[in-house]
Amino acid sequence: MAPAAPPVAAPLPLPAAALRLGAALALALLLPLPAAAAQEEAAGACHQYTNRSCEECLKNVTCLWCVSSQKCMEYPVRRILPPTDLCELRSARWGVCWVNFEALIIAMSVVGGMILIMLGVCCCCCCRKKSKKPDKDDERAAREREKRRVRQEERRAEMKSRHDEIRRKYGLFKEENPYAKFEN
């Protein structure tokens, strides 16, 4: 007999899927994965706080408190987010009792989006500012180039006039080519 395929979960509605994806990304960045030995040790320690208080349960960072069922359980680190059959996102607490996963996901998404928008605006402003107005160094270099070009033209004209005077003095001044074609 062939082994049975694992059950396929029904696709989540778009907002729930987006929430889960955002939460997964947020927790992947914030949650360091503990060692396997510490997880096994914490599993037994977490269940002893069931039907007590959220604060007692969350003293251990590997524990997850479910408000709806009043259960303290091991945080499912391999799944990043607790599955809905374990505890709903709005009822799950981890780290502190006053923040649920849904609010954490929304807050992290908003903050992340604002940071991305601010970076985009800053990049656009810097690029636009740089392209519209040349730097002072560029302007100074252009003025110096223009001054050098003008001085060189003046020197060239002065040297040409000197050479022409010397050619006239010694009779070496170039006249038009006497053998050029005559045009009528």
From TrEMBL:
Composition-biased stretches (Basic and acidic residues): 134-163
Q: Where is the signal peptide?
A: 1-38
* InterPro entries, A to Z: PSI, PTTG1IP
Keyword hit for DNA repair: no
| Disordered: annotated segments | 130-163
Q: Which residues cross the membrane?
A: 103-127
Question: Taking every annotated instance into account, which residue ranges of this chain make up the domain PSI?
Answer: 45-98
Topology of the protein relative to the lipid bilayer? Single-pass type I membrane protein
Subcellular localization is given as: Membrane
Keywords, comma-separated and alphabetical: Glycoprotein, Membrane, Signal, Transmembrane, Transmembrane helix
Q: What is this protein called?
A: Pituitary tumor-transforming gene 1 protein-interacting protein
Q: Which organism is it from?
A: Apteryx mantelli (North Island brown kiwi)
Encoding gene, per UniProt annotation? PTTG1IP
